[in-house]
Specification:
heterodimer, A: alpha/beta, 11 strands, about 40% helix, B: mainly alpha, two-stranded antiparallel ribbon, 4 helices, 2 strands, flat
């Protein structure tokens, strides 16, 4: 029996070197957990048949003395990350049984070091959602309380790590989809700087906002994966090299708290938790200042103009012609209508139509142009604040995990879940969610998360403060 | 907004909708657009100072062989003939 609960990448690597167990044996342990719990929780859409073979390959790499930190480490990937010759469906019916025809760059990097990709995890369809309820394959249940959502859209990935059904996972984050479910599931989720990780092989949703993000049980593991997957890639022209952004010398980061933003509609317990966190940070000698982000309250509305606009373009390719599901109509045009009518879920249709509307003549200026202007104003707010502080601290979410079915029929209510997380995507800034405590409801302990936002390419500051906070949090 | 607007959008997006779907979308879209239009007021205020340093990245127009599984691609065509994708007639 391997103690999965207290396992970290570093410990697993040392255990492999000390021959405490093989890579194959460790993968078997995770497969056992998945077998026990996946039926109830619906975390994995598929466990890959070749997982053990991958683990055996990893053992070979150790035998040859060529192993690195991530060799043999069991990883779960979100169902929108391409792994050649494996099914990838973006949680949608329209890509049911679609097999990836190439490796995403992140998967190529995992394969190069011999990491073990266990399977693909459940998600909101095409990453559109905050609860994994929009999956065409059923919702994932939050392991902390199975009547509640795990968050979304990377709900499967965060739940997988939470139950020790993977040591680490990859998700994607367009408005908080790594961070919010990480908070709901009690794990760490990082949204890297836009462009820091190649999007080649990530099924696109909002191309100017999407980022692939690592998920783990602790900050150190998340940092390890980030260091593996980051880097510029000629296959993704929006990817950036190391040191693309100027780096300010920061001895001890000053933390900014946008107090005016932390007033309306936030659960009291979240605010209490935040104050406890601030107290702990102050005890470590961190200076905390108030910052003002006057335009950040427009993040959600501007996001829900810009992203549907990009979605309406990105979803056009799913037409049943060359790949995915094909529904037959009376003629070619009708093929398109029937395929999309059948294959796309409610939220996807909603967003495509909103996007089509805001980009159409007559409305383009009032909606899309204005939203883009507001996006720039929000970026200004952060830029000005980062002249005075080095990190910005907020809760990750406005409340703990909500109940399944509670918000799914109210789109705007769902959209407001992104209130603290969307700004980082609009501005391209890196942000991390770290477990910060629990609230109790009906005898169940529900995790909470706090979020740090850093200037562009300052993931190093996020990792540093994250590790410090983990120690003082206990 | 009325049902005809929803129908026009669905036409543009090539999505077939049932009557029930159209009615629900009309409500949803109404609510969403009502919520997001507040950006208009915000944008009136100022012009952003953050420089929009977006520029195009080009590559050389060289023929470089890439690794793609042609077989996998062809296998997933809904209908194919002699390695060509078969679709209904366009004209």
């Amino acid at each position: 029996m391997i103690d999965l609960k207290n396992l970290t990448i570093e410990k697993a690597h040392q255990d492999f070197l000390d021959k405490k167990y093989s890579c194959r044996a460790l993968t078997e342990e995770y497969l056992k957990v998945i077998k026990q719990r996946n039926k109830e929780l619906n975390i994995y859409l598929e466990v890959f048949e070749d997982a053990l073979k991958q683990a055996e390959q990893a053992d070979k790499i150790f035998a040859e003395g060529k192993a690195t930190k991530m060799t043999g480490i069991p990883v779960a990937i979100k169902d929108n990350i391409l792994f050649e010759n494996h099914v990838v469906s973006a949680g949608s019916k329209i890509l049911e049984n679609y097999k990836a025809t190439y490796d995403s760059t992140v998967v190529r990097k995992l394969k190069e070091v011999g990491a073990v990709i266990l399977g693909r995890t459940n998600m909101d369809e095409f990453a559109m959602g905050v609860s994994t309820e929009n999956s065409a394959y059923g919702v994932t249940k939050n392991p902390h309380d199975t009547e509640r959502v795990p968050g979304g859209s990377s709900g499967g990935s965060t739940a997988a790590v939470a139950i020790d059904g993977a040591l680490v996972a990859l998700g994607s984050d367009t408005a908080g989809s790594c961070r919010q479910p990480a908070a709901f599931c009690g794990v760490v989720g990082l949204k890297p700087t836009y462009g820091a990780v190649s999007r080649h092989g990530l099924i696109a949703m909002g191309s100017s906002l999407d980022v692939i993000g690592p998920i783990g049980k602790n900050v150190a593991d998340v940092e390890t994966i980030f260091n593996l997957i980051k880097g510029s890639d000629e296959m993704d022209s929006t990817s950036i090299p190391e040191n693309f952004y100027p780096k300010k010398n920061v001895a001890k980061p000053v933390i900014g708290i946008p107090r005016t933003f932390l007033k309306e509609g936030i659960d009291e317990r979240i605010l209490t938790n935040l104050e406890e966190v601030i107290k702990k940070l102050k005890s470590l000698g961190y200076e905390c200042k108030d910052v003002d982000l006057p335009f950040v309250k427009y993040s959600v509305p501007s996001y829900y103009i810009i992203t549907p606009a990009e979605i309406s373009a990105n979803m056009a390719r799913f037409d049943g012609m060359r790949f995915g599901v094909h529904k037959d109509g009376a003629n070619l045009n009708d093929d398109y209508f029937k395929t999309k009518g059948y294959g796309f879920g409610k939220e996807v249709k909603r967003r495509i139509l909103v996007g089509t509307y805001v980009l159409s003549a007559g409305y383009y200026d009032a909606f899309y142009n204005k939203a883009t202007t507001v996006r720039g104003l929000i970026a200004d707010d952060f830029r000005k604040s980062f002249e005075r502080v080095d990190l910005i601290l907020t809760p990750t979410t406005a409340g703990p995990a909500f109940k399944i079915g509670e918000k799914v029929n109210d789109p705007v209510k769902m959209y407001l879940e992104d209130i603290f997380t969307a700004p980082a995507n609009l501005t391209g800034l890196p942000a991390i969610s770290i477990p910060s405590g629990f609230v109790e409801e009906a005898g169940k302990k529900l995790p909470l998360g706090i979020q740090f936002i850093a200037p562009h390419q300052r993931e190093d500051l996020l990792f540093k403060i994250g590790r410090a906070f983990e120690i003082v949090r206990g | 907004m009325d049902i005809r607007d929803v129908e026009n959008l669905a036409q543009l997006a090539r999505i077939e909708l049932s009557e029930v779907e159209k009615k629900n979308l009309l409500l949803d879209l109404g609510g969403i657009l009502e919520y997001v239009k507040q950006v208009e007021g915000a944008a009136k205020a100022e012009k952003p100072k953050t420089e929009n340093n977006i520029y195009n990245i080009w590559r050389e127009d060289d023929l470089v062989a890439r690794q793609f599984s042609r077989e996998l691609i062809l296998k997933q065509f809904p209908d194919a003939k002699d390695g060509f994708l078969k679709v209904k007639k366009i004209l």
